Every structure is written in C-alpha cells, then in structure tokens.
C-alpha cells in the first residue's frame, strides 16, 4: 500500500484522541502532515491543548499541531462536555504540554500545505465540525485540486441523531460548513453513526486494552472508562461507540467496511431538523452521488486492528 499523506482535523474528545493514537501507530502507511484542531467537543483552547497532550503522551515528536476556527461559520458554538467531560479528554492526564502550538492558523496551514502539493495527493481526515475545512475551501478553492479524498466522521441516517432527534453532533455544530464540504465535488467517505454505533466497546475489550502492557494502552483504557459512562447510561450498552477511530481504521484497511455511493445533503434551514444528513440511500432523487456512505463494519476485525495497533505504541 502506498503511504498516504494525510491532514487530521479534530476536536479531542476521547474518541478523537484514540483516533490520533491509531494514526500514530501506522507511520509506514500514513504520513501525517499536520494535526489541525477546531472548536467542537470543547472550546478551541482545549481541543488544541488536548491534541498536544495526546501527541506528547504517545512520544511523537515530529508532528506539528495547529489551532483553527474557534466557532462555526454562522451558528453559535455548542460543545459536548456532558459526553467528554469538562476537559474534553477526561480520563487522560491533563497538563501543560511541551509540544508547542504552531503560530500559523490551521486554515492557513491547510491552504499552504495543499497549495504546495501535487494534484490529488492529500487525504483530509476531519473528525470534528467541518469549520476549518470549509473555511479553507472558501478562502482558496484552488486547493480542491490537491485533495484526493476526504474521510469524515459525521452524520446519521438509520441510527437517528445523537444531538437532536435527527442530527449527529459534528454536522449539527456547523451544518453550513458541512454543506460546503459535501458539495466540494471531491471523493468523500462518511463514517456516520449508522456504522460507528456498531463498534461499541465493552468491559472485556477495555480490559484487554488496559493489559496490552504499554502506556498508550493504559491511556486508552483510562479514557474509555470515563467516556463509556455516558453512552452506557443513554443506550444501556456495556461501552461507548468509537466514532472517530473509524476514519483511520478505514484508511488502514478499507475492507473492514461496507458502504454505498449516494447523495447526501445537509439541512441548514429548518429549526426542527437542522444538521440532519438527508441520505438518498434508495436513489429516489436524481441528485448526484457525492459521498461513499459507510453503513457496516467487521466489528471483530476493527477491534483486532485497534488492539494490534495500540500495542505498537509506547
Ligand atoms: C462525534 O461527536 C463527537 O462527540 C465525537 O468526538 C465524534 O466526532 C460523534 O457524534
Ligand atoms: Ca470528534
């Protein structure tokens, strides 16, 4: 497999943090050009700090981290401390990381990096609200030529919403940004709740991760113990869904997932269904197919990969 050049855009979040660790674990497959952060699960000053904490704890030294937009394009920011805790990655140690925050704005970093790259050479991996990506496209649409694929965590169809009855968190926070990205005319893969709710951890998996014998395994288990409490109460499950790691798992082994090329449109006006992803799964419109909508996963294969990869870290 050719090494993919990726930019990760995230809002850590425990599941974003585990996504980062999964990405760090496969340097032979993924060339991480930078990590950009956005306001989402918690405000920007915490998401950028959290990305630096997780990177430092994993012992990764050569990846730069940028802060981007501190609010959605048009809406007021809503955050999700009720899921992720007051720090966003509760369960992990919180400290002032030595890894510096780059001075350059994340949107400018994305534009500059893409502008200097070959056509169709960069994969974007957004696992938070799509504000940074949309602002970069708005500011310099020429960068679109440089993008080979965008692998997004967001949206929901059969599963319903997790933030409103019909909207998933990342899309609900900034539906106007999502609309720009989904209509950008680039190959898009979406990991919606329909699939992420199929990779729910449980006590046995968390214990196995904790016993991997390395610091990263302990870190993941400790974050999961905090994170799981919310979904256990809400869904009556024995753990929580690993939303964001699905993006990196797809890049490492797309055969774990099943999807369909469909049209996905985002509701940006209705108060009732704001941020809903309208998925033309059964092709009842003539709208162009803009997304590869993932709806199933080999759950055992996913967790085997996660454990195998986390065990490779410090
Ligand atoms: C998404 O929202 C956030 O809470 C998670 O980090 C994930 O990206 C799931 O709806
Ligand atoms: Ca996230």
CATH superfamily: Ribonucleoside hydrolase-like
What's the average pLDDT? Answer: 97
**Tally the helices: what do you get?**
12
Silhouette: globular
Low-confidence stretches: none
Q: Regarding CATH, which class?
A: Alpha Beta
**Integer count of domains:** 1
**In CATH terms, what is the architecture?**
Alpha-Beta Complex
What topology, given as strand order, has the largest sheet? 3-2-1-4-5-6-10-7
The share of residues in helices is 25-40%
Tell me what you see in this structure.
- It is built from twelve helices and ten strands.
- The longest helix has 21 residues, at 215-235.
- The chain has a single domain (4-310), classed as Inosine-uridine Nucleoside N-ribohydrolase, Chain A, CATH 3.90.245.
- It has helices spanning 14-24, 44-57, 81-84, 106-115, 131-139, 169-173, 175-182, 193-196, 203-210, 215-235, 245-252, 299-310; strands at 4-10, 30-37, 65-67, 122-126, 147-153, 188-191, 257-262, 264-266, 277-279, 291-297.
- The model has no long low-confidence stretch (mean pLDDT 97).
- With 314 residues, the protein is an alpha/beta fold.
- The chain is 36% helix and 17% strand.
- The chain has an eight-stranded mixed beta sheet with strand order 3-2-1-4-5-6-10-7, with helices on both faces. A two-stranded antiparallel sheet has the order 8-9.
- The chain binds beta-D-ribofuranose and calcium ion.
Question: Which key features would you list for this structure?
Answer:
single chain; 314 residues; alpha/beta; Inosine-uridine Nucleoside N-ribohydrolase, Chain A; 8-stranded mixed sheet; 12 helices; 17% strand; binds beta-D-ribofuranose; binds calcium ion
């Amino acid at each position: 497999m050719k090494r993919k050049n990726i930019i990760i855009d995230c809002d850590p979040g425990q599941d974003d943090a585990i996504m980062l660790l999964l990405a760090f674990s496969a340097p032979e497959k993924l060339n991480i050009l930078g990590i950009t952060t956005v306001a989402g699960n918690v405000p920007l000053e915490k998401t950028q700090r959290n990305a630096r904490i997780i990177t430092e704890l994993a012992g990764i030294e050569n990846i730069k981290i940028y802060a981007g937009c501190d609010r959605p394009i048009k809406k007021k920011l809503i955050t999700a401390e009720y899921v992720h805790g007051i720090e966003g990655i509760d369960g992990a140690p919180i400290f002032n990381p030595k890894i510096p925050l780059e001075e350059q704005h994340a949107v400018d970093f994305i534009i500059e990096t893409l502008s200097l790259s070959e056509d169709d050479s960069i994969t974007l991996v957004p696992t938070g609200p799509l504000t940074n990506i949309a602002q970069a496209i708005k500011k310099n649409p020429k960068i679109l030529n440089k993008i080979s694929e965008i692998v997004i965590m967001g949206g929901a169809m059969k599963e319903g919403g997790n933030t409103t009855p019909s909207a998933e968190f990342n899309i609900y926070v900034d539906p106007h940004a999502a609309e720009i990205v989904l209509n950008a005319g680039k190959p898009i893969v979406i990991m919606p709740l329909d699939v992420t709710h199929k990779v729910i951890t449980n006590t046995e998996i968390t214990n196995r991760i904790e016993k991997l014998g390395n610091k990263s395994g302990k870190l993941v288990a400790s974050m999961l113990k905090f994170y799981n409490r919310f979904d256990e109460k809400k869904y009556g499950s024995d753990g929580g869904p690993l939303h964001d790691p699905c993006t990196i798992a797809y890049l490492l082994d797309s055969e774990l997932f099943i999807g369909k090329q469909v049209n996905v449109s985002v509701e940006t006006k209705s108060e009732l269904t704001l941020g809903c992803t309208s998925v033309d799964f059964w092709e009842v419109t003539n709208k162009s197919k803009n997304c590869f909508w993932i709806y199933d996963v080999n759950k055992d294969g996913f967790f085997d990969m996660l454990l195998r990869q986390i065990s490779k870290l410090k």
